[in-house]
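Fill-in record for Helix-turn-helix transcriptional regulator.
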Amino acid sequence: MPRRESPNPGDSLWSLIAVQLRRHRDERGLSGADLAELFDRDRSTISRLESGEIKLTEELARIADDAWSTGDLFVTLVRFAKEGHDREWFQTHTALEARASEQRIWEALWIPGLLQTESYTRAQVTAAGFLDIDERVAKRMKRQESLNRNPPPLMRVILDEGVITQPVGSPEIMHEQLARLLELAALPNITIRIVPKSTGAHVGRDGSFKILTVDGEDSAYIEAAEEGRLVQDATDVRSFRLRFDRISDRALDADTSMQRIREVMEGFR
């Protein structure tokens, strides 16, 4: 397996952790396979940990500290990194999104970025008050290229009904956007379902999130204004999978959801 490039340790605490993990392994004359055995993970996971592509969990940090007598170095670094703001979060999220074989998306406020028309994106970015509108629109449209991969990603999308009824831009923009959803939902790899307003309170009201599957491993991404948070700890990610399943239980089936989107779309004529 080719050796991946090390991240810059000055970029973030997570990058520093990745560099330190490789350095401590090398200092002890251990191979990647040796560390994989210690962590009870496969070799590709070790490569991704040391390149900074995925983050060291507190569980694995504890194993490294105990085995190498580091004085809780890795546990301490991981705890500080989890508490602080990671400047690389969006870069990591975008890289995972581009490679994900499956995406599970729950969106409570907006049409998901990968499914937006350019006009909808521009209206959303303009309403948010950003000055670099053209740049933001171009970047979002660029991200949508991941939908054209071969094979394309499997996408399971659940939207709050308010997402399709809330006007963003003009009626023409909304009509075009909802038509785009119907077009995408007709593809064999994309399912779009709606949680009706009549559902009332449910776990999805806490906020939007997505679960990305890359090389058989899941990461969760929590959306927030101006920033987000990437979650890669196995226990935390499992809680998001359970939350997605509970939201899915509240959603209309795919055919009924498409019917509802058509009804709303016609209202925007």
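KEY FINDING: The chain has two domains: 13-83, 89-267.
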